[in-house]
Sequence to fold (508 residues):
Amino acid sequence: MNEHKIKEPSIWLSLIPVVVLVALLFIAIRIFGANALSGGNQIILLTAAAVCCAITMLYCKTRWADIEKSIIDNIAGVSPAILILLIIGALSGTWMISGIVPTFIYYGIQIIHPSFYLVSTCIICSVVSVMIGSSWTTIATIGVALLGIGQVQGFSPGWIAGAIVSGAYFGDKISPLSDTTILASSVTDTPLFTHIRYMMITTIPSLIIALIIFTVAGFSYNVTATDKIVLYTTSLKQTFNISPWLLIIPAITFFMIVKKVPAIITLFSSAVMAGIAALIAQPHLLHAISGLEISGIASKFKGLLMIFYGSTSIEMGNAELNDLVSTGGMAGMMDTVWLIICAMVFGGVMMASGMLKRLTYSFIHLVKRTVSVVASTVGCGLFLTLTTADQYIAIVLNGKMFKDVYKKKGYESRLLSRTTEDAVTVISPLVPWNTCGMTQATILGVPTLTYLPYCFFNLISPIMSITVAALGYKIFKTKPNEDETITETGVAEPKATNTITSVQSNQE
Fold:
């Protein structure tokens, strides 16, 4: 039998699908804006995958069977993430309608003090974002409210938006409910809670520095109005049965996370507990959501199912509060699921063609020590965030490009997942043409470049990631660097027999 030979793609040939992807994404985002996530970006990913597929089949002679297998393997690799995303959709609905999130907001919003407005804004957005796992929802709801309060009090829009974005993306980064957090851990094969715990090493110091800056800056302003705080707390109190007892469920959830209970079990259990809490504490809301005329077991059961799977809305007498308490349920996650699947198709074709491996080598030659590994990952993440204009695509590509490099260099996958989030998730809202940057600027009515200098948490995170790597803190290796080299094709070749040991990078 004749052996099927595949021709190695050149670096310039490998760049063609990426250029096509970037160019089409730029056009789509200009046309659709934030709505590009509802289908435009997905079609473009498939189009770029088709271009890559045509090149690799015609020029590199890659067989369709190999491409198809790579796509299937890629999609199979993120199937746990898709399941978690669907559960999170249910969790977001039950936590909101049961009164858990409104209780957090009710007590949290009252901590705003005239001298500590900026730091309080950052903290409130952090808490809300951790609870709901969405920076976009946090900014579009409580963020808009806090922006209005701050402007009345005399704060500049840049400072206010900077505090809001910093807090919202802190929560988006570490919340187990966040799709970007789940995606980063899934792409790099890192357990979700392992990923979150490891991110704390760089995330907490970055937030502390940002909070110190916001605290110092807050003393230079004079605050005179707090009428919206009263309006919001009153409306929440009138609509929901606010009770500190509801906070038992987040406490139990946190306990399960600490005990390293698998993410799917933890999140599903939390959603079920919140559903039971909704039946007990907010039966009137379940009846209203059901749409049935007669209140009874049927209306409550229908309303309960609806908050798990579908979109819900409650009339609060205020448009901003209506947005705050609205939920999407499991159905609200479908755009993200669709995007992830299409991204996996593109990644699968790039991997099967050998193009991803070829592009990876352009960064591999910089990798020698721990700090250069992390710095290269950060640099690539920033490059992808700027060029692909979408945080999901950047996370997927960055994770896929460096996954084998970290493995062959002996670094744990959690280092890659953390570095990817430090360089992609928090930087995406700072890029004017990125979907995140466009969305937040539109929602807040503050240009991206106006709030960019004040998003201290976002700006500090990539620097903190490199700094921690340079210090060698909590960075372990299981394989010595000198036992293998990376060839120009990105393949590791052993120099000698390896002995697996565990050493810290700062001992190199």
Residues 11-77+342-507 form one domain. The longest strand covers residues 484-486.
